[in-house]
Amino acid sequence: MDYYLILCIILFSIGAFGMLIRKNMIVLLMCIELMLNSVNLLLVAFSAHYGSSDPQIFVFFTIVVAAAEATVGLSIIIMGYRYLKTTDISLFNNLKG
Amino acid sequence: MSTEIILGLMMLLLLFAALINGTVGIYLPKRLIAILACSVVFAAFGLSLLLFFNFEAAEKITLFTILKIRETSINASFYLDALSIWMTMIITGVGALIHLFSTAYITEKEDYYKFFTYLNLFVFSMLLLVLGSNYFMLFFGWEGVGICSFLLIGFNYSDPETGFANSMAARKAFIMNRIGDVGLLVALFLLINQFGTLEYTDIYKIVSAKDFTVSATFITSLTLTLFFAATGKSAQIPLLTWLPDAMAGPTPVSALIHAATMVTAGIFLIIRSNYLFELAPLTKDIIVYIGLLTSLYGAFSALRQNDIKKVLAYSTVSQLGLMFVALGTGAYTVALFHVTTHAFFKALLFLCAGSVIHALHHEQDIRNMGGLKKYLKITHITFLVGTLAISGFPLMSGFFSKDEILASAWSYNPVVFALLIAVITMTSIYMFRLYFLVFHGTVKIDKDTQHHLKENPISMTLPLMLLAILSVFGGIINLPGLIFHGSAHWFDKYLTKGTEGLSAIHPHHPEASFTWALMIAASALTIGILLWAYNTYARQMKTALPDAELKGWQKISASKLYLDEIYNFVFVIPIDRLATYSYKSFEVGILIRSLRVFPKVFGFMGNVVAKLQQGFLSSYIFWMLIGLICFIGYSIIILQFWN
Amino acid sequence: MDILIWILGGLTIGTALMVILSKHPIRSVLFLVATFFLISAHYVLLNAQFLAIVNIIVYAGAIMVLFLFVLMLLNLSQDKIKKTAYMLKISSVIIGGLFLIVLIAALKDSFDFKSIEGVRTDIGYVKVLGQTLFSKYLVPFEISSILFISAMVGALMLAKKEKEIIE
Predict the structure, then answer these.
(1) Where are the alpha helices (DSSP H) in B479-572?
(2) What is the pLDDT of residues B280-324, one digit of tens each?
(3) Is ipTM beyond 0.90?
(4) Which of B215, B303, C24, C82 is the most buried (most CB within 10 A)?
(5) Are B544 and B407 in a shared domain?
(6) Is pLDDT larger for residue C160 or for residue B340?
(7) pTM for this one?
(8) Same domain, yes or no, for B584 and B623?
(9) Would the CB atoms of B632 and C95 count as touching at under 8 Å?
């Protein structure tokens, strides 16, 4: 069980690190998915430890939400790409004030 | 039917008619609006007759509690005793006749529904005022009639020539009423402070208990504030100048509000609180003197007014002063008796004036009238009846009520009695002058209008005839006990038995010989003046002088003793200057300038913060993570210390 | 057989690192797919068979394919033109490391899990999972359908070609 905890922490921080360092928007979204998956793994580990199926239901719904969010996020990126002709995130600074 | 149902029906019908006329009245035909409005008031009158004939003992009907603070609770409740039922009958009866009259008087099509909405609302508020069982309901109705009076006086606010003057008059009426209302509010506060309740019956119980003591200053200030409120509503000195200006409203409004009902609200208030006033003899003296002064002022100013309605307005002021004199001398039932007879003949006079004005297409100056008796026959006869009634012609209603006032003034103070005789003399003089100048003498209207001049329709003349009958026979209710022993003083007995506090008051009844002498003397006076006036105006054809030729006392009388100008100088101009000055220096100078600083400050701060936003998404994530790290680190450290 | 788990864990971390360190985005996607497969393997080891399959089908199968499609849709030859500032890279590493340490520090006291006796081992079966899902969590299930509809509608609306923008 501890093993899973450490594994998830490492995966999560890898995902966070990836968010900071990558410039491509789509890779950014992928790092988000990585973080979500690490949390899912932890939840399933807990479910196996305590013998309850509630965390697995939670994982279920997390996957659902991740799917929806990936869809919408990608369509936003497509829109942004049409507008700016690039996927470089440092060029997305219209909020500059 | 139980009294609750009758009462509820009366009020709700009025409210319902006002609601319908107010909301969809703009689409309804004139006839329907008129039928709706008039029928509910007639129905209310019928219901009030039912209440009157079934009246046995005073009862209180409580609906709900408005406000409850610790032990003091203010309820929405109604109180039916002799006084309130009598006032209800007057209000709905005279009101119904005036509603009928105005169906033909008001000719504007667009605002027809508005007029009847306001009239119904007015009757509703006035009923709330008289039927309430505590001072709060009275206050509620008080304010309601003030607003309806404002709306009705300024009814023709969009008229191109007189619209501005109408709204100014309405504003003046409202503001003066409001000043009086301050007195009423202070009185309410004093009452709650001392008695802990506002209900009439509760206060009477406390006051009439054997061991009730209260400081003289308190009761004098309480009664003075109540009287101050009454002066605002009933146009006494100092708050009287609104009433003549209120003649700018349509004539039925003047008849209903400023002759028969609203102006009697002040008198009603004092009769209601009679047990409080009995404890404050100083206030009663003040009431007598102010009433006397007002009465003299009104009568004197009416001597040389040249507008029909202004003469009647000053006459109203004068008659109200008489009623206050009666109140001050302790003769409460006499005052209410005069209220009743005054309602009859003053409403009659105003409606006749309205009839004349309507027939002459809104001509109001009596110098342009004359010899109308052969054109407007019914109006002529009813106006004559009204004039005789108000002058105290023997055996008319006004004769009996004025005699009673004179009698109680004699036992109070002979000087007051003498001055009242002067008032009555002037009353007869100006009323007969008015009558003769309008209906006798040479015809001054142009030939064109003469051809179209004819008597008004039955809907206008029927109320006149009914009111005339009442003015003649209205004195029956309170005949002196000289001749008619059995049925004498019926009204006195009715009111005293049915109203709290009045039975403890024993007004001084003069001896029989004095009453006979008084009656004969008053009759002689009236008939003498009638003959003099007939001689002066009809035989010698003396007419009213144009403004430029007035001299001496006539000029002072015609300018109403310059009271309006004095008020303007003393009150209005200083306040206006003060307002302009504080606007210029405080509002514009300080406030607005300081307000300009704020946007600059906030704008600057906003600019500084806005520079922090770079727009780079990754930096946002960056800072988010840093924040998260700090947060988790902080809670770890805190938890370490706890564990 | 413990060594299997360690190898599995190490491989997972390795592929995750390659996701974020690859230069080409398509390689990142492929490494992510591999990560998902490895995580599904973890699920199987944890008695969550149904979830393992669902993970593969939904995540690796649908979402990643979507990512691939979008990547191919956008022409990405100009990805490497601008270099990230060194400052940003270094500070990112520091922050990432700090984050890792803080998380471990936060959870260090919970590293003494005792295994529980008599734990049910069949919770990952479809039957048991389905029973819980459709009895206790029925409402979220239904609401997630609404979520899907709104996501679909949103995605369609967003990605529609706006004629005004082009003009």
Answers:
(1) 490-498, 512-533, 552-558, 563-567
(2) 889 999 999 999 999 999 998 888 888 888 889 999 999 999 999
(3) no
(4) B303
(5) yes
(6) B340
(7) 0.67
(8) no
(9) no
